Amino acid sequence: MPTNQKESLIFGFIMCFGMVAVMSAYNLLLIGDLKHLTLQNVLTEVGIGFIIALLLDLHVVGPLAKKITHRLPFDKSNKLLFVLCMSTSMILGMVFFMSIFGLVMSYLGNGLDGQGLLIVYGVIFVKNFILAFPLQLLVMGPIVRFIFKHFIQRKKCETV
Predict the structure, then answer these.
(1) How many other C-beta atoms lie within 10 A of the C-beta of residue 89?
(2) In terms of Cα–Cα distance, which of 131, 55, 120, 59 is closest to 91?
(3) Helix pair angle (5-30, 39-56), 10° resolution
(4) What residues form the membrane-spanning segments (predicted)?
């Protein structure tokens, strides 16, 4: 896990890129508009989504998730439980905010089809959570922690 601001930035960068890439493709597939599933549209959505996600991760959701995790009544020395609590807090926060991004992108692309704003947001939130939770806990989280531990922190140890 990151031990300083530089490591937090690198960790967040890798995590956000992976999550945004998968979630953007997922959301484009969900709206069923395959003609918009072009390289340019995917790159645009991933680029904008990545910038927003990274800013949220570093300045809003990340710090809030850390505060929440540290205030929860459990043994913080249990690394697995700590990572699960931190990841769950991050997932809930990021899905909350990135679903707003998805709502805006959906509205700009297709409109709301006469449905209420809160209903559409709720549907987007649930669909995003259904993929984001297992994706982060079972796929991206372990992959990013592996990359971080074996390539980023290892380089730091070798240069010291």
Answers:
(1) 19
(2) 131
(3) 140
(4) 9-30, 42-60, 80-107, 119-148
The C-alpha atoms of residue 113 and residue 24 are separated, in whole angstroms, by: 21
Residue-wise pLDDT for 20-40, tens only, equals: 989 988 887 877 766 666 788
Domain extents for the chain? Answer: 5-159
Q: Is 160 strand, coil or helix?
A: coil
What's the pLDDT tens digit per position in 52-98?
A: 999 999 999 999 999 999 999 999 999 999 999 999 999 999 999 99
CA atoms within a 13 Å half-sphere pointing along the CA-CB vector of 31: 23
- pLDDT one-digit tens code per residue, 97-118: 999 998 888 788 777 778 889 9
Helical (H) or strand (E) element with 10: helix 5-30
Contact 53, 20 (CB under 8 A): yes
Please, how many CA atoms are within 13 Å of residue 12, restricted to the half-sphere of its CB?
23
Dig out the tokens for 51 from the structure.
Answer: 């910038």
